[in-house]
C-alpha cells in the first residue's frame, strides 16, 4: 500500500491518460515499420528514424495492414506477408494506356521505366510509368508500382494509447 503525499503541478494524473493495452480500432499506435517485397527488396521503412503514428480503422492504412496490427501490445514485433490482392491490388491490363507521343514534351527522353506525371481529371496529378514505346504511341502503366506484388510488413509497436487522449492533447 502507498500514500500519495503530493501532486506535481502540470503533470498528468492517471485519470488524464486513457490506457490501451492492445491495438484496436480507435487506438493511436506509435510504431516502427518496414515494407519489403518477398525477395527482400526494401520498399519503405522508418526503422532507425522517427517512429510513425497511425489509428487502425481510420482509413489511412489499407485494411490488411490494420489487421496485422490488431491485438499487438507495446514491445511486440510482428511480420505479416500480405498477398498482392490485399496490399496494392492485382495488376490490371485496363490500366495500361496508349498515349500519343506528341502529348509528351519534346525534351523528355521517353524510356521504359520512366515515371511521368499526368493531370488527373479530378485535379491533382496521376503518376504513370512508361511501359514501352510503340512508334508514335507510348504505352503507360497506371497500375500502382507495387500492384501484383506480395508485401512483407514488419512492425514493432512502441506505444498504444486510446485515440481520445491524442485528441485531447491537440486541443
Report on this structure.
- By secondary structure, the protein is mainly beta.
- The chain contains two helices and nine strands; from the N terminus they run βββαββββββα.
- The strands form two sheets. Strands 1, 2, 3, 4 and 9 form a five-stranded antiparallel sheet that branches.
- β6 and β7 form a beta hairpin.
- The two termini are 36 Å apart.
- The N terminus is likely disordered.
Give the structure's gist in a few sentences.
The protein is mostly beta strands. It has helices at residues 63-69, 163-169, and strands spanning 27-37, 42-45, 52-54, 77-82, 96-100, 115-119, 125-134, 137-141, 151-162.
Secondary-structure-based class equals mainly beta
Note the overall shape: elongated
Cα-atom radius of gyration: 23 Å
Q: Ranges with pLDDT <50 over ≥5 residues?
A: 1-17
Q: How many distinct beta strands?
A: 9
Largest sheet: 5 strands, antiparallel
What's the number of helices? 2
Provide the residue-averaged pLDDT: 86
Our measurement of the CA-to-CA distance between the termini, rounded to an integer number of angstroms, reads 36 Å
Q: Name the helix and strand elements from N-terminus to C-terminus, one letter apiece.
A: EEEHEEEEEEH
* Helicity, as a percent range: under 10%
Query: What is the beta-strand fraction?
Result: 35-45%
Amino acid at each position: 500500500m502507498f500514500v500519495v503525499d503530493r501532486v506535481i503541478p502540470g503533470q498528468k494524473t492517471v485519470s488524464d491518460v486513457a490506457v490501451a493495452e492492445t491495438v484496436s480500432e480507435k487506438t493511436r499506435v506509435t510504431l516502427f515499420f518496414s515494407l519489403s517485397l518477398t525477395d527482400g527488396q526494401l520498399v519503405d521503412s522508418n526503422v532507425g528514424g522517427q517512429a510513425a503514428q497511425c489509428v487502425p480503422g481510420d482509413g489511412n492504412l489499407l485494411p490488411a495492414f490494420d489487421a496485422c496490427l490488431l491485438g499487438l501490445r507495446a514491445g511486440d514485433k510482428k511480420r505479416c506477408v500480405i498477398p498482392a490482392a490485399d496490399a496494392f491490388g492485382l495488376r490490371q491490363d485496363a490500366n495500361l494506356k496508349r498515349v500519343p507521343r506528341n502529348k509528351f514534351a519534346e525534351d523528355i527522353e521517353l524510356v521504359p521505366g520512366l515515371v511521368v506525371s499526368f493531370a488527373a481529371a479530378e485535379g491533382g496529378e496521376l503518376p504513370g510509368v512508361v511501359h514501352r514505346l510503340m512508334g508514335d504511341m507510348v504505352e503507360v502503366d497506371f497500375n500502382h508500382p507495387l500492384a501484383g506484388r506480395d508485401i512483407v510488413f514488419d512492425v514493432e509497436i512502441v506505444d498504444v494509447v486510446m485515440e481520445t487522449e491524442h485528441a485531447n492533447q491537440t486541443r
